[in-house]
Every structure is written in structure tokens, then in C-alpha cells.
Amino acid sequence: MRILILAGDADGNIGDQAIRTATCMLLRQRLPDARITVVTDRPDEVARELGVAAVPKAAPAAQLHAMREADLVLIGGGGLFQDDDSLLKMPYWA
């Protein structure tokens, strides 16, 4: 199974980082053969830390490709769906 994780502002938020890390750990426990990919601002570092593939957040074409290839797309990490700090945030994550 191929799983893509969109983790919001995880790179700049320790709580979101914890949620992303825990999500990857739990997925590995339940689905040890799953191929996990994470969208991130720090693809090399996050891939190394979590043992996952990573797609740069600044590469929308790569993100779309990863979405098409995924069997499951998880959207998680803190308050992704809020409109209090940016008019672009809601449409971007949706």
C-alpha cells in the first residue's frame, strides 16, 4: 500500500511534527509493508528521520504525482483547516 501524508505546517511546529512522527510509527505497526511518503519543506531531513520517502512542499507537480500514485492520502497534523491566518490555507489543503 502506498500512503501519502500531507502534514500541514509540521516543519515549523513541534506539535505537528509529533503528530506526523506518531502517524508514521502507527502506520508502520499496522502496515509494515506500506510505502509512506510525506510532503515537507525538509525532504532530505524528514526522509532520513522517519525512514520515509519525501516530496518537497514547494513542488506541486511532484505532490500531484504522489497523490495519483497513492492508495491512501492522509491529511493530518494540528489545525490544517482553519482560516484565521491565511485565505490560501483552506483551499490549498482542501
Describe this structure in words.
The protein is of the alpha/beta class and 94 residues long. It has one domain. It has helices spanning 14-30, 43-50, 60-69, 89-93, and strands at 2-6, 35-40, 53-56, 72-75. Strands 3-2-1-4 form a 4-stranded parallel β-sheet, sandwiched between helices. Strand 2, helix 2 and strand 3 form a beta-alpha-beta unit. The chain is globular. The model has no long low-confidence stretch (mean pLDDT 86).
| Separate helix tally | 4
Order of strands in the sheet with most strands: 3-2-1-4
* Rg estimate, integer Å: 13 Å
What is the SS-derived class? alpha/beta
Strand content: 15-25%
Report the end-to-end length measured between terminal Cα atoms. 23 Å
Could you say which overall geometry the principal axes of the C-alpha atoms support? Answer: globular
Number of domains: 1
Helix content: 40-55%
Keywords:
single chain, 94 residues, alpha/beta, four-stranded parallel sheet, 4 helices, globular
Précis, in short:
With 94 residues, the protein is α/β, with parallel strands linked by helices.
